[in-house]
Amino acid sequence: MRKLLTATITATLSATLLASSALAAPAAKSDPYGGEEAFRSLYKELVETNTTLSSGSCTLAAERMAARLKAAGFADDQLTLFATPEKPREGGLVAVLPGTSKTEKAILLLAHLDVVEAKREDWVRDPFTLIEENGYFYARGTEDDKAMAATWVDTLIRFKQEGFKPKRTLKLALTCGEETTYAFNGAEWLANNKRDLIDAAYALNEGGGGRTDGKGVSEGGKLVVESIQVGEKGVQNFRLETRNPGGHSSIPVRDNAIYELAAALVKLQAYDFKLELSDTTRAFFAKAGAGRTDDLGKAMQAIAANPADSPESRTAEAVLNTDRTFHSMLRTTCVATLIDGGHANNALPQRAGANVNCRIFPGHSVEETQQELQAVVADTGVTITPVPPLRPLAKTPPLDPAIIGPMEKLAARYFPGVPLVPTMSTGATDGIFLAAVGIPTYGVPGAWGNPDGNGAHGLNERMEVKAIMTGRAYLYELVKTYAK
Prior knowledge:
alpha/beta, Aminopeptidase, Alpha-Beta Plaits, 16 helices, 36% helix
């Protein structure tokens, strides 16, 4: 799932960044093992394997990627296909390229195979046929997340075929279930049932990447930012419900389940959770704010320098709250997303309910958030219940120079003049399941998209060809740097 934060950074960076950000990435070194043509074949096969929950099969996609790895020289005991009897089409793959060191911990490469549903009648092109047109690849999953999945498989194939002997063991996990809350989640299953198989010092995942000024680089646009995702919010749904004996609508009373629920939601609408900063968001506001000359830029720097409650910080917060992304980055947010109630048009409602979707700032539990919602509503007639599944506590990984440094050094060469900023995702990835079992997870820079999201989760999903190929080269070098 390409997350919401990086999709809005472009619109909030200053014009000074735009002026200095022409892309001049180095050309990827040619290799004798198929190069771009082989990658295109792999990417096409993966994209054209339907992996929607309704009619597709992640298991088939995993099997096809395993076959490519085996053809490149991976042994059977280095490839683990997994699925459960209850969810046979929602399986995945773990591949291992053994390292030479007996002491250095492995690096895990993570990507999800499943994609959001896509109806042919709604799309201009067949969503499950990879089409190249005007510098873009079109199809469901071209961006989210099969570009990354294909890049990781391609990287391991290249390492194997060129005889690269990594010091660190490299592991690849291709999983299902990231796009659907109630589906079988392969990353969660591996973390809870096969922890040793995916054990690693850290994981590299989706969530980072670049954004243009509105047009693709091949269309004359400019790359204005590259980001590293360092942490994400937790996700939890809550059910708010009111009950009432009801009665005939011809003799109404003020004690009405719908009115009581509405009053609770109005209180929630007016409430802001307290301002918080993590190491990641403090670094983001300081670095991204320094590149701006407007009031938002000044407020970003002010809040990074002094997040404590003070007249200055309250003034800065008020400015930042005018930007919906910054408002969300600064706190837990909870918002009503679904509502239901009543049973007949001539009867007083006996029940009314709403789903409230919360994005919880790292370090806070579901229980804490539930208690705060209860305090906000302040009505014992409104029950507030977490809706399964309950996700783990969000944990922010450290801004470790050993991990961030190589990303920065390589980005300076591939994307000269383009700022590289750490970000906390206000959305969600499967990294939360790895973090919960002690594997810090980072969303990598590399490929880029446009501010409109390139149709991810929507119609006519697309990915700029130049973005994919540059990201492929960048990530190949990055993983090799870590693994040496």
